[in-house]
Amino acid sequence: MSSSEKKPKTYKDNLEIIDFSNISLPSPIERYIVVDTATTGANPKENNIIEIACVEILRGKITGNEFHAFLHPRYQMNSFSEQKTKLSSNFYEEYFNDVYFSDKKCLENFRNFVGNNMIFAHNAMRDMEFINNELNYWNLKMIPKRNFYCTLKIFKEMFPNLSRNYCSLSKCCEYFELLPPAENYHSAIFDSFMAARMVCKFFEIFNEFEKRKNDKLNVNKIEKFNDVNVRENKILNGDDNLVLQEDQSDFYDINTSFENDNNNNNNNSENNNKNKIEDHKENDDSLNDENKKHFKQKLSDEPIDLDANDLNDLMKDL
User: Fold this and answer.
1) Distance between CA 10 and CA 5 in Å, rounded?
2) Which residues lie below 8 Å from residue 186, measured CB to CB, with a gap of 6+?
3) What is the pLDDT of residues 138-154, one digit of tens each?
4) Quick one: which H or E segment has residue 37?
5) What whole-number distance in Å separates Cα of residue 65 and Cα of residue 111?
6) What is the DSSP pairing of strand 148-150 with strand 118-121?
7) How far apart, in whole angstroms, are the C-alpha atoms of residue 182 and residue 184?
8) Other C-beta atoms within 10 Å of 36: how many?
9) For the ranges 50-54, 126-130, 207-211, 241-245, which has the lowest average pLDDT?
10) Among residues 188, 189, 170, which one has the least CA distance to residue 180?
11) Is the pTM of this model over 0.70?
């Protein structure tokens, strides 16, 4: 790290810049298995697993349910692996003389423990290659690549500005303030436990991020609601004359338009009614004229016996 680069003391100094939309972190509510392996060497094609360990995580918490097994070294362990893992051929000779399970049975138990659940591992592609090579060697079902999540990849996505020094499991845990003695690293059971603690820290940060996001949304809603209330109170109290005038002007414009529409409708209605009355009157007048003609014709054509009252009524109509 250059002298000009400022190193954050812990992950807490960088929480504000984390963008979870760019982070390949699954839902924390599922069951996950955190895996670590120790091997005879670095190349998966020329070496094999000598220790494998798993830690179970459920709903973002370590459950205490674990799997651990040693396997026979089919290749000569190099000096680096012996120094790193603190294991040697003598250990395996003594171990398998006292307690022996076949390598295939150990891997069957491992496969059953994992099931179809997703797997976390630090530098996951390396562990995936070794595990699948071992499963394939014993004709067991291999684990798809899509089932693996890499804790190192997620760490780099969370904190892209950190230097390349933050690659090892011990460095990443140190950044998360998970500080066990460094000499304990490189045992598969210990490394899987520390990687599991880091995965739980991922979920913890994610949950805190979601809480802050929801709190911020709620604050924005409250502020918006308060702004509306303040505006209404100002209008009611006459403290905001300009807003009041604008609102009144809008109201009057709307009211005037509404009244004009009503007047137009009323005028149209009155005109329609007048036209109907005049049409009806014309019809009545026309009908009366026809009746008069009819009765006059009747009077002229035929003699009719009428009493005085009938004659008076008839004369009124005429």
Assistant:
1) 15
2) 38, 84, 85, 86
3) 999 999 999 999 999 99
4) strand 31-39
5) 15
6) parallel
7) 5
8) 26
9) 241-245
10) 170
11) no
